[in-house]
Design goal:
The longest helix is centred in the C-terminal third of the chain and has 24 residues. The protein contains nine helices and five strands. β1 and β2 form a beta hairpin. The protein is globular. The mean pLDDT is 95. It has one domain: Ribonuclease H-like superfamily/Ribonuclease H (Nucleotidyltransferase, domain 5, 2-Layer Sandwich), CATH 3.30.420. A five-stranded mixed beta sheet has the order 3-2-1-4-5. It is an alpha/beta fold and 205 residues long.
Length: 205
């Protein structure tokens, strides 16, 4: 297993860049619910949470435990959320871009800082024009700040979908969090789409 490290963050700190944010998104592919981005900033190796990996490599229990520690030890965090209606209007690529910008803006506002540089997961994501940034293929597997951001985004979105499952219990969101599982597709055929389904995604089904 590849363990994310701080090699890139350290090289940027050495160049005089102070506030380095890792940013990642979760929810690009589901048929329902929002896309959520997380942003995480640390300033020292002492702030690293050892158990953090890219969220896809962690169990739900591990993510929940790491989530609390990331919040406790990080210098700044932000979350950006773009709902299904907006995804239908502007497309998933722009929605991901907007969620990342919202997460970074929240971190800046809440913690009264100006982000110097952003490490973005995914080499094909849209450039964050407001920020100096670097897009990195498989960045969540390699770099701690991005991995931590992926955990923040994943736990936030999963919690949202579990809450929405109470409002729309017929779809089983608490189990598949909006992804196109067999049970989810069967529920869609039986009940039709809910208000939180991405209508633009369902056109291709």
């Amino acid at each position: 297993m590849v363990i994310p490290d701080l090699s890139l963050e350290k090289s940027l700190w050495e160049k005089g860049l102070v506030h380095i944010a890792g940013v990642d998104e979760v929810g690009r592919g589901p048929l329902a619910g929002p896309v959520v981005a997380g942003a995480v900033i640390i300033h020292s190796e002492k702030q690293v949470v050892d158990r953090v990996r890219d969220s896809k490599l962690m169990t739900a229990f591990q993510r929940e435990k790491a989530y609390l520690q990331i919040y406790k030890h990080s210098s700044a965090l932000g979350i950006g959320i773009v709902g299904s209606d907006k995804i239908d209007k502007i497309g998933i690529q722009k929605a991901v871009w907007q969620a990342m910008l919202l997460a970074l803006a929240e971190a800046e506002k809440k913690f009264q800082i100006k982000i110097d540089y952003v490490l973005v997961d995914g080499s094909k994501s849209q450039p964050l024009k407001k920020y100096s940034s670097q897009r990195i293929k498989a960045g969540g597997f390699l770099h701690y700040s991005i991995s931590a951001a992926s955990v923040i985004a994943k736990v936030t979105r999963d919690r949202m979908m579990k809450d929405l499952a109470k409002e729309f219990p017929q779809y089983g969101f608490e189990r598949h969090v909006g992804y196109a599982t067999k049970a989810h597709l069967e529920a869609l055929r039986e009940y039709g789409p809910s208000p939180i389904h991405r209508k633009s995604f369902l056109k291709h089904r």
